[in-house]
Write a sequence for this structure.
């Protein structure tokens, strides 16, 4: 059976995806500047790429657009826990 897709629904999904990606990119830029501002990248013992992993953990758990502040706070918390652990 051929797949029939509602074009309006498809357009909405594409628009929502693009909007979500722009929010995620802005949040990641904010976290990268926070990392530099707090000189976390100067810590030689810190795991490489850990900030992105922290953010991805937060983004998977708190995925809706409205939870931007919670995602950022969660990613920062995870990053600080990793600094303490390392």
């Amino acid at each position: 059976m051929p797949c029939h897709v509602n074009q309006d629904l498809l357009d909405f999904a594409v628009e929502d995806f693009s909007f979500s990606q722009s929010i995620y990119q802005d949040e990641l830029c904010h976290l990268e500047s926070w990392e530099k501002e707090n000189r976390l990248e100067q810590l030689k013992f810190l795991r490489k790429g850990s900030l992105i992993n922290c953010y991805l953990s937060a983004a998977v758990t708190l995925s809706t657009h409205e939870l931007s502040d919670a995602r950022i706070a969660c990613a920062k918390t995870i990053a600080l826990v990793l600094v303490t652990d390392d």
